[in-house]
Design brief:
seven-stranded mixed β-sheet; Mre11 DNA-binding domain-containing protein (chains A, B); 3 domains; six-stranded mixed β-sheet; Purple Acid Phosphatase, chain A, domain 2; 16 helices; single-stranded DNA endodeoxyribonuclease activity (chains A, B); 3'-5'-DNA exonuclease activity (chains A, B); alpha/beta; homodimer; Translation Initiation Factor IF3
Chain lengths: 615, 615
């Protein structure tokens, strides 16, 4: 009933004929994140959960007539999703995203920069009828890896189901180009950054190497929306393993924060900055932790001019999940023989509560069977077998085999500031589904690498083994090995005492067999020996973002393409302090402010505004 | 020049305005197979080979203005293709298959049977502009496995790039439903059967459980084309590890034989039957064997009425490959110290020959660098290190590290018939890229399973380990384990001395821990205890194949959809001897001939003609 009301209210707000004119100026965006498609796909009870909620989200999107769906990463649970997961995801997207519904907003920015692989937003491809565009970044689960650096989201991008954006090409120097959109009088600058290992990204922020490209014309007219997928630190303390709200620039209006599974979707004002943060939370519980017990929602974000409104819509398909803490030592008249019975009673109570909360009157079905977690402090008691407790709840509890988790007495908490931050971090991390496998320890233990190994260390080897195991990258170890050798070679090249490729080879060969090299590594350049390092993604970031006319392309919705050509936006780069600058052709090293954005002629633009393709 | 001439001739044959009318009655089909996309994708030299030739095939298809492309399996090399391979494959298909080119033929048969997952041929989906349809079966490399039984080809099917057909739902009882097509006055019945393990399929053929469904109306008007992907035995001898031409029914007109990599594309009349066989061969060499040295071609198959013409088109992008046999013992004045030099001279000679054959005048490029294989009978000589020979040919030979293969004196061959067949088989198998890993031996060696294990044997365990390793199925071993337990349970159910599920559980539990069961396995049915086994794909195969009208669907090419509704074809089933029968609603157990095909009303048809979905 709750969801129905919300939806009806949403429909009322735009279904009315009188308001139709004004709703032509309102962006309506469904925001959701962490769908984890394929999570426990082989589980007989829970195998369909991720897909059921994903489909519900698209049903809501359709019913709410949103302009587009915005996803915050971890669309897939596995880095290499199974064929079944890919097929099921595709089928849902095909069902809801294709069709004749009109797409009422246009892209003003250069689509070859926003979508380097397809060079075009999906609904402008003349060979597809897209009725509901989806924009998505990647998360830590579906992050790019392997040959070519493709993400699982790329698989949905190349067949035009999803507009995948926010893939940083150089983690040490990130330039965020917004997708500039217009609907009626409203303008939206959509920034996205796919998941990067938190420590790395934190460092890039700290070294002021995250640059925000802003529209040079009418930049104050834009509503600035940013979607990211990182550990979130709400306090202002810096902690290297998370991104603090204070690190994000003040010109932003709204941040959609992915990765955090707890649903805190109602916009919260950031501390010290002017933007609001909405944390939609996951659409499926992938860990039995406190944060996942909160009811799951998605949001309908409406934007008109510089105003926004977010209406949350509860997901009805999400499996009920209840959690309770029990300290056995505090229970009267309890001994080891009574623990099982005691816990059984608690589970029954919890089931009863869930029945009441969810209005479930008949027996639990495969779909409604809840998740139950009891965290038991068993200090002074023996553990009981979780499966022994579980066998009475087959058909009643979805996770009957792991209802209980045991721990010893909680340690006393410090009260000084730093500790508190640490505790906050620990709590945050505990509620996440980050990989926590003991691979590193095991590799180190088995390798016992001698100290004088200077190319491959146990830590780097463990990283590659982890990638091999968890991301199922067949070649992770070999590729990693080659990478480390390359890095060592580069380092040696920088050493002035070494002058020829032969010198390097002989030094490296002392310890390692070198894989065959096709390319000459040394660039002879006077007495300076400079490596050919990866170029920056774009040398001319001051180029206008508008797409050039492409006369050979057929665009079905002609008014859209006409409008695309009309506005030519010039962009400037904004550093973290919020000032603008336009580098003259080549990116400046420092972030000094330069004013007077200039428009460059289309001919020169085309040659320099496209970043090098990631082949 | 050769290819250019061929293409020009092809274009002439239909580009002429005068012949336009008659070409409206001619099916033009590009036939190709075994593209092995992703083969050696990490190889710095050869990594692009499979994609380059695949793209060339589609360039030829476009230039030749074919009606569709027919692929014979092994589109992908890996059962779980990498993301990079999937993206690259999709990009090629998107580039060539989408667009406004008119599709000039129509499907007459029930598309929900031909394409059970999408229920529609890709070019009739109103949300896609398909200009060049592709029809493909799967091969042994990209065969269905894992959860849901999806093939890698399914991944291209669900996003509408490819029409995937010929997936048998029950290997022990195969019914082949043709895709019935019409172009002008020509009618085509396209049969397809994706790869099945040869021994299994052989057995199904032998037990007469392969049934050929034929159009009941005007069946003599159809040209019957069959595409399969199996070991091919051209002699009439039966050999359990291959399919003999004699096993296929006589009503066929043409068979496109996949899996065999040797290009024998020119149609060859089958022995004892009236059909012709075209074996296109692979578009990339995946083994350094004799069969792969033949020039690679694809074919343009033209069909008009009961006439056909096949024009072969040589693939220019295929890497040159030359092979030579050397018997060191027959070389005069050679000792161990001279072997390396002797082989080097031979490689140089071969490179010179390739230069002449291919007209390569400049240095070999990454694309033209050839494959070289010298098979050395080294009886009486020591082996040399292949990499020692190879280091002189870096940048000249694509496979410089494995130019030579060594073997001892060839054994004398028998001359009696049976042996010869065996030799033929051995030669055939040797030229294939089937997996030949020593997994089975290793598993057996490590397990040393005791004799009284009656559920899991070392052979079955080895099968699952192999699937885990080679198909990267994470759950292969667990799933296999569960499958064996199920099978054992079923066997026990058939045992009359056992009457309840409990009895079974207790017997099985003696040796194994049983995974949790959701479903009751026993179906109590009088004193007969019958298992719920998989139903046959369709109980009513006599239903007309035409698709029902779908008023809500928009079909852009209206004349096509109209025609689809017009013809209603009734099908009958043909057994191997070629006689027809129409079962009355339910499939008869034996294959007796029944005439008088009846048309069933659409309403009853819809409920029974769709096979159960494979969820």
């Amino acid at each position: 009933a709750n969801q129905g009301d919300e939806l009806r209210a949403l429909m009322d707000s735009q279904g009315d004929k009188k308001t139709e004119q004004s709703s032509n100026d309102v962006f309506r965006i469904l925001v959701a994140t962490d769908n984890h498609l394929g999570y426990l796909e082989n589980d007989r009870i829970r195998g369909n959960d991720s897909f059921r909620s994903f489909e519900e989200i698209f049903r809501i999107a359709k019913a709410s007539k949103v302009d587009f769906v915005l996803l915050g990463g971890d669309l897939f649970h596995d880095n290499k999703p199974s064929r079944a997961t890919l097929v099921r995801a595709s089928n849902i997207l095909r069902k809801y995203c294709l069709g004749d519904d009109p797409v009422m907003f246009e892209i003003l920015s250069d689509q070859t920069i926003n979508f380097p692989d397809t060079a075009c937003v999906n609904y402008e491809d003349p060979n597809y009828n897209i009725g509901l565009p989806v924009f998505s970044i990647h998360g830590n689960h579906d992050d790019p890896s392997g040959v070519g650096g493709y993400s699982a989201v790329d698989l949905l991008g190349c067949c035009n189901f999803v507009n995948y954006f926010g893939k940083a090409t150089n983690i040490n120097d990130i330039k965020l180009f917004p997708i500039l959109m217009q609907k009626g009088t409203s303008k939206l600058a959509l920034y996205g950054l796919g998941s990067i290992r938190d420590e790395r990204l934190h460092r890039t922020f700290q070294s002021k190497k995250v640059q925000w490209v802003r529209p040079a014309e009418d930049k104050e007219d834009y509503f600035n929306l940013f979607v990211l997928h990182q550990n979130r630190l709400r306090r202002s303390q810096y902690y290297k393993n998370a991104i603090s709200e204070a690190m994000l620039p003040g010109f932003l209006d709204m941040v959609v924060w992915g990765h955090e599974h707890e649903c805190l979707i109602e916009p919260e004002e950031s501390l010290g900055k002017n933007y609001f943060v909405s944390q939609p939370g996951s659409s499926i519980a992938t860990s039995l932790s406190q944060g996942e017990t909160r009811p799951k929602h998605v949001g309908i974000l409406e934007i008109k001019g510089d105003q926004y409104r977010l209406t949350k819509v509860r997901l009805k398909t999400v499996r009920p999940f209840m959690m309770r803490d029990v300290i056995l030592g505090e229970v009267e008249d309890l001994d080891d023989s009574g623990v099982l019975k005691y816990l059984e009673v608690i589970v029954e109570e919890m089931l009863e509560n869930i029945r009441n909360d969810y209005g479930i009157e008949t027996a639990f079905t495969k779909e409604t069977m809840p998740l139950i977690r009891i965290r038991v402090d068993h200090t002074g008691f023996k553990k009981i077998s979780p499966s022994k407790l579980g066998q009475n709840f087959v058909g009643k509890v979805a996770n009957h085999d792991d209802i209980v988790s045991f721990h010893r007495k909680a340690q006393k908490k410090d009260s000084d500031g730093k500790s508190l931050a640490q505790i906050e971090i620990d709590n945050l991390l505990a509620s996440r589904d980050d990989y926590k496998t003991p691979i590193h320890g095991r590799v180190t233990k088995h390798l016992k690498i001698s100290e004088d190994m200077s190319v491959l260390t146990d830590k780097t080897i463990a990283d590659y083994v982890q990638c091999f195991v968890e991301k199922m990258e067949k070649c992770a170890i070999l590729d990693g090995f080659e990478k480390e050798v390359e890095a060592k070679k580069k380092a040696l090249v920088m050493d002035r005492s070494i002058n020829t490729k032969k010198d390097i080879d002989s030094i490296v060969a002392d310890k390692l067999i070198i894989p065959e090299q096709d390319d000459q590594l040394l660039v002879e350049n006077g007495d300076e020996k400079i490596m050919e390092i990866e170029d920056e993604p774009s040398l001319s970031i001051s180029a206008p973002l508008s797409r050039q006319s492409q006369p050979s392309r057929q665009v079905r919705r002609s008014q859209r393409s006409e409008r695309s050509q009309r506005n030519r936006e010039v962009v400037v780069v904004e550093d973290e302090s919020g000032s603008d600058y336009v580098p003259a052709g080549v990116l400046c090293d420092d972030s000094e402010s330069i004013s007077d954005a200039k428009e460059i002629e289309p001919s020169s633009r085309s040659s320099c505004s496209k970043p090098p393709s990631r082949s």
